[in-house]
Each structure stands twice: as C-alpha cells, then as structure tokens.
C-alpha cells in the first residue's frame, strides 16, 4: 500500500533559518511568551476546554497549591464523556459518573468557570461545542485534556490534547510548557468518488502511514480536495490527526472558515470582526515554507474505508481484503495476529457482506449537523435492518435542536431509529452506551482499540454513509452501490 | 510542589512484547471515573489481566509470578491513543518506575515525565536484546541511569544511550515541577497579555 505515498523527507533544524514560515509556526510564534535555550517554550493558551473526566485531579492540585484558576474567562467547561444519551433530564444512574459530573459542577462554581453542563442549551461534546459557538477561531491556541482537541485545528488554529498535570498547568498559568513539534504537510488533490467523504480520506491516510506515522509532528492538511471540504469535513480530518500519532492537525483558514465563524455566538462582532478577518487572511504557509516531511495522496485512490483491526491504521478500502499476516512487518506479526483474532477475522477475509450487530453514528468525529443531514438523506424512505441496534447521537444540544427543526429526527424515526441526546456515547465505554462483548459495531467514531466501546466489543470504523448503509442492510456494504448516480458526494 | 524523583534504578523487568499498546488497554475508560490520582494500579491492563468474571487470566504476564520488577519493557508505539494521564498513573501506581519501548506516543511520554515515570526509548535492536535477555533469565537485571542517560543489560554489559529533553531531565532528577517554572515567569505572561 505504501507505494501510493509520494514522500519527500527533508531534515532541517527546527526554528529559524527555514525560509518562509509554515502556518503552524506563524501561530506558534505569535503565542510564545518566553523561549529559552534548552527549555521548552512557554506557550500562551487562548482557550482551555475542560470536561468532567480529566479535570478533577487538576482542580485538586490547584487547591493543594492554594492557587486560583488564572484566567477563568478563558476556560470553558462541559460534561460529555459520562452523560447518558437517553432521558438526560433524569439524574445519572451510574453513581461514579454522577459523582464526576457533580464534581465538575462544584469545581466550576468554586473557581468561577462557565459550565455548559447537562440541561444547558450549549451542552455537548467539547470538540463540537467550541466550533459551533464561535469559540474556536483561526490563529488561536486551544488545549483540552482530551486527545481529539486536534479537531479545532480545522479552523487554522493550534489545538492539541494534554494530560491532567498540564490541565492543572494551564489552569494555574494560562500557559503550557511545550517543545515545538516537527511540521508535516499532507496534501490531498483530485476529485473524490461519489460516496467518499472526509472520514474516508482520513482513514485512508492513516492506513497508509500507520497509527504511529505522524508521531512527533504537527500536520498541515492541504491540497484542493481538502480545500473543497466543508468545515464539518475539515473537523473530521483534523479530529483524527492523533490517530496517526500526530500532536494535531490544521488547515489554513479561507472563505469557508470565515463564513462558518461569522455570526456565531462568541465570534467577534463589528470592528473586532473586521480586524480578526484581516489577521486570518495572513494565516497560510508561505510559498517557500519548509516542512520536515511532505506526503501527497490522490483523492481518486480513495474508496469508502473500513477498519478490520484494533488500531485506526488497520484500515482498507471496503472492496479490499484483510492483509495476510505473512505480509506484515515480521516484528509486528504477533500483534497483528492478536488483533485479527480479537476481531474474529482471518487473513485475506473480505468485509463486504459481513453481518454486523450495532451501528453507532456519533462522536466528535461525525456527530455534527452535516453528518446527520447526510445520514438522513440516505435513510429517507428506508428502514433499519431487523436485529441491528442503531444509535444516532448528536454531538451537542444545538445539533440535536437543529436536527429536530429540520425534521431529521422524523426521518430517523420512520427508519426505526430514535434520535438520542448529546454526549460521547458509544465512542468510549464510559457511559451507559456500551457495545456488548463479541458484537460487531460499525462506528463513525475514531478508535477501534480493543474494548474501546465496551469490554470485548469489536469496532469497525467507517464514514457516516457507510454506517447508515450498514444500518439499513445489517451488513458491511459498498455504499457507492446504494447511491443514485452523482448524488450524495461525501 | 515537587514531583516524584527519578535518578537511577537496577531491577528485573516485565516483558510485554506487543506493539501499539494503547491507553484504552493500559487503563480502560470505565475506570476513569475516580477523582483522585491513586488506586489506578489495580486496573492496569484490566481487560488483559482479568476475564469477564474478574478472574485473573493465567496467560497474562502480570499474573505470572516469574516476572516482576520496576521496569516494563513493551513493543513499539507504546501509549498511543488518548491523553488520559490515568495511563501513566496506573503504571506508576502498580509499581513501575520506567517503561522501555522502541517508540512512544507523544502525549503518553509527556504524561509519564510529569509523573516521575521514565519513558526510555531504545532502538528496535536493543529492544529485541532486552526481550531475549528477560526470556533467557527472568531475574536479569536492567540498569537505567538517568543522569548518564543509558540503559544497560547488567549480565552482558550491553548498553545504549537514550534521549531526554534536558529540562525534563533536570525536573526528574530534582523533583521540579512545570507549574513552579511557569509561575516564576508570571510577569512575562502578564506582559504578553498586555502586549496583544
Ligand atoms: S466523542 Fe469520543 S473521542 Fe470525542 S471527546 Fe468524546 S470520548 Fe473523546
């Protein structure tokens, strides 16, 4: 598969003397508070997102140090990982989850942080609400104790996930001690096939460069295919940067970005807006900017993608066969065989026609209004397959409301699928929505790790369209064959 | 406030020759509901260690009394996946002081360093040697010296040097803390804010 990559590795010292600046460097440099030889940079963070799972120990740390949150107004909180996606108005049943969510509420009150908790009209998955509220904007820095913070990079921002000690660090100082990563450019050019979308692009890239191929890098996605994507599609791409090991991914802002941000709740207004837009227009990688690594892919090569293994790098085009163990790098064969065994698959199997048990459409990768619209368009006039359990989970309260306003919930209901309430849901086995042991779930989320969706669950990652096709047929199918000519281009 | 100090250890090691060990394996999400940093060691590698009836799986290395020690030796791309620091806490809480692999995921590496757990990145060849030696003699002593930045198989004397950010090295050896460092630069932070 690797022959599809055109690689151009250049090894250069980081920092000065590289010719023009990359988009990443422009934003990074604008946020360096202090830089000292032998030390990581002190990087200023514009907005810190927090949620219930990775913040309690950080608040505790602040208390032990006797420190306040340094810039509470630049901190935004929501509850997403632990929340039920059904009957949200009732108290959370699971005691520990309830305790964690209550603790977030108490901590936010004590430290003066705005909380979009359960029941709030802005509640939702942290990486869905930032963009839709206009908090996520070009040229800014964002961190969150969650690896998919990379999502916000779609706006031409530096955004990445951090651990809890760093959450405490940002709470205490609004800064992060961080070494500058290397820069990679990934270009995708050409016209996508019908039924192929952003999710397929990113699953394809990861399958080509492996789950570790981006480690140590910050990725800029470029090329005309990427440019042609909506903001939702760009977020899907940047979201999964971490699944190739990269710290984050970003895309230069353009008309699409500016139009998306305009008019949103917390977007700049009036004169501020004009100033902001003028600045955003300077945010691109210079012609002569040098990247540490450049990869290019052709959009035409990309099929609807599915994963067959237990890391997101183990993906194939839906018509392809599972690679044979002997063809895998010798040092990785044991792990490879273990993964196939976990998935109940064998060398050279095809996934086409494989019966599945669950379909999950949701997560910070694919739970935005555009995803739900696309799924609804596909499901219109169709019925969910007998015996398949299908969960459609909006990424936020606002997405849910919008879906209802547009009547998408009615389309889902007619197909036999109720629209659930917002949260991380079956993306990770932490709340009530878990996939039972041994069951196959076609999932629009981002991780197919062992047990990710519940102990011994088997995850097949795919696009919302492929997932919707699985919901209707009860099988893995090539969604291209179910689409009318020239319609539903992802 | 200070963090855990790491300088130098000599210990037998526990082998886990699996690639791409992700944070969901190290500590499954359902155990992330605790609100303190302690106690995660009980659930380290939970689903590899225990079956659905919570009985220990005999074939998993942590349930094999032959292997014990302060060093975990694992296959490449260790710690990929989520940013949950609980993964580092779990490994540390279980009693490991260093993890050796031929490749680490970025966020995991940072989290480990912030918790006094040393990630030691070695070459694929040295990793293979380590596994061979541990399987040959489960008591085999592995020496990790942070000050001198080397890892050594004591019996054969074979050693390799490893990289670490000099600032992080100083933090580990002296128990310094990132927050103290940034707070000592607070005036610069405020200046920066005033400037924009
Ligand atoms: S939806 Fe999944 S990946 Fe996204 S923030 Fe929630 S748990 Fe993390």
From TrEMBL, chain A:
Essential cofactor(s): [4Fe-4S] cluster
Functional pathway: Amino-acid biosynthesis; L-leucine biosynthesis; L-leucine from 3-methyl-2-oxobutanoate: step 2/4
Claim: Amino-acid biosynthesis is one of the keywords in the record: yes
EC code(s) of this entry: 4.2.1.33
Enzyme class of the recorded protein, top EC level: lyase
Cofactor note: Binds 1 [4Fe-4S] cluster per subunit.
Subunit record text: Heterodimer of LeuC and LeuD.
Listed HAMAP family: LeuC_type1 (MF_01026)
Protein known as: 3-isopropylmalate dehydratase large subunit
Gene: leuC
UniProtKB/TrEMBL annotation, chain B:
GO molecular function term, any single one: 3-isopropylmalate dehydratase activity
Domain of life (superkingdom): Bacteria
Biological process (GO), any one: L-leucine biosynthetic process
Signal sequence, start to end: none
Pfam families: Aconitase_C (PF00694)
Coiled-coil residue windows: none
Catalytic reaction annotation: (2R,3S)-3-isopropylmalate = (2S)-2-isopropylmalate
Pathway: Amino-acid biosynthesis; L-leucine biosynthesis; L-leucine from 3-methyl-2-oxobutanoate: step 2/4
A cellular component annotation (GO) from this entry: 3-isopropylmalate dehydratase complex
Domain Aconitase A/isopropylmalate dehydratase small subunit swivel residues, every copy: 13-124
Keywords, alphabetical: Amino-acid biosynthesis, Branched-chain amino acid biosynthesis, Leucine biosynthesis, Lyase
EC number: 4.2.1.33
Keyword Cell membrane appears in the UniProt entry: no
Role according to the record: Catalyzes the isomerization between 2-isopropylmalate and 3-isopropylmalate, via the formation of 2-isopropylmaleate.
Family that this chain belongs to: Belongs to the LeuD family. LeuD type 1 subfamily.
Self-association and partners: Heterodimer of LeuC and LeuD.
UniProt-recorded name of the protein: 3-isopropylmalate dehydratase small subunit
Taxonomic lineage of the native organism: Bacteria, Pseudomonadati, Bacteroidota, Sphingobacteriia, Sphingobacteriales
């Amino acid at each position: 598969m690797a022959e599809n990559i055109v690689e151009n590795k250049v090894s250069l010292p980081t920092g000065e003397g590289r010719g023009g600046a990359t988009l990443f460097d422009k934003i990074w440099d604008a946020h360096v508070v202090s830089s000292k030889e032998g030390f990581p940079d002190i990087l200023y963070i514009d907005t810190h997102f927090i949620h219930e799972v990775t913040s309690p120990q950080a608040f505790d740390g602040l208390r032990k140090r006797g420190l306040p949150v340094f810039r509470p107004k630049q901190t935004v909180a929501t509850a997403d990982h632990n929340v039920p996606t059904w009957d949200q108005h009732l108290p959370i049943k699971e005691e520990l989850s309830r305790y964690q969510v209550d603790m977030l509420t108490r901590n936010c009150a004590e430290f003066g942080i705005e909380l979009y908790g359960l029941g709030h009209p802005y509640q939702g998955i942290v990486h869905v609400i930032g963009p839709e509220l206009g908090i996520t904007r070009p040229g800014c820095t964002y961190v969150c104790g969650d690896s998919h913070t990379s999502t916000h990079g779609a706006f031409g921002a530096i955004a990445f996930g951090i651990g809890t000690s760093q959450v405490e660090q940002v709470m205490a100082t609004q800064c992060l001690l961080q070494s500058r990563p290397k820069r990679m450019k990934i270009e995708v050019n050409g016209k996508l096939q019908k039924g192929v979308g952003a999710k397929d692009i990113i699953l394809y890239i990861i399958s080509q460069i492996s789950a570790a191929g981006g480690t140590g890098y910050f990725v800029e996605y470029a090329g005309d295919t990427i440019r042609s994507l909506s903001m939702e599609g760009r977020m899907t791409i940047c979201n999964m940067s971490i699944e190739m090991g990269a710290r984050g991914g970003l895309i230069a802002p353009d008309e699409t970005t500016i139009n998306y941000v305009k008019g949103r709740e917390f977007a700049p207004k009036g004169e501020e807006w004009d100033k902001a837009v003028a600045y955003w227009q300077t945010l691109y990688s210079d012609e002569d900017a040098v990247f540490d690594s450049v990869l290019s892919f052709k959009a035409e090569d990309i099929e609807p993608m599915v994963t067959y293994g237990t890391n997101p790098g183990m993906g194939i085009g839906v018509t392809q066969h599972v690679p044979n163990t002997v063809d895998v790098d010798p040092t990785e064969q044991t792990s490879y065989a273990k993964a196939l065994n976990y998935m109940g698959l064998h060398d050279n199997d095809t996934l086409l026609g494989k019966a599945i048990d669950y379909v999950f459409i949701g997560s910070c990768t694919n739970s935005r209004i555009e995803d739900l619209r696309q799924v609804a368009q596909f499901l219109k006039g169709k019925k969910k397959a007998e015996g398949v359990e299908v969960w459609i989970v909006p990424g936020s309260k606002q997405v849910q409301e919008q879906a209802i306003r547009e009547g998408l919930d009615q389309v889902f209901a007619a197909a036999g699928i109720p629209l659930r309430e917002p949260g991380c849901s079956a993306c990770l086995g932490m709340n009530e929505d878990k996939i039972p042991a041994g069951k196959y779930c076609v999932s629009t989320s981002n991780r197919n790790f062992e047990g990710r969706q519940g102990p011994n669950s088997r995850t097949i990652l795919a696009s919302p369209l492929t997932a919707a096709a699985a919901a209707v047929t009860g099988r893995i199918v090539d969604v291209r064959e179910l689409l009318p000519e020239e319609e539903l281009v992802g | 406030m200070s963090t855990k100090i790491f300088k130098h250890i000599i210990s037998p090691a526990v082998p886990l020759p699996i690639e791409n060990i992700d944070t969901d394996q190290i500590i499954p999400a359902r155990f992330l509901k605790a609100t303190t940093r302690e106690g995660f060691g009980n659930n380290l590698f939970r689903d590899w260690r225990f079956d659905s009836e919570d009985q220990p799986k005999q074939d998993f290395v942590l349930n094999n009394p032959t292997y014990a020690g302060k060093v975990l030796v694992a296959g490449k791309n260790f710690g990929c996946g989520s940013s949950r620091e609980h993964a580092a806490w779990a490994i540390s809480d279980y009693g490991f002081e260093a993890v050796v692999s031929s490749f680490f995921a970025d966020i995991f590496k940072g989290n480990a360093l912030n918790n006094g757990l040393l990630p030691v990145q070695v070459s694929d060849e040295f990793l293979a040697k380590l596994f061979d030696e541990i399987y040959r003699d489960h008591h085999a002593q592995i020496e990790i010296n942070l000050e001198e930045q080397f890892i050594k198989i004591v019996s054969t004397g074979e050693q390799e040097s490893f990289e670490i950010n000099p600032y992080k090295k100083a933090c580990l050896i002296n128990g310094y803390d990132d927050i103290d460092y940034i707070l000592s630069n607070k005036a610069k932070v405020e200046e920066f804010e005033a400037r924009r």
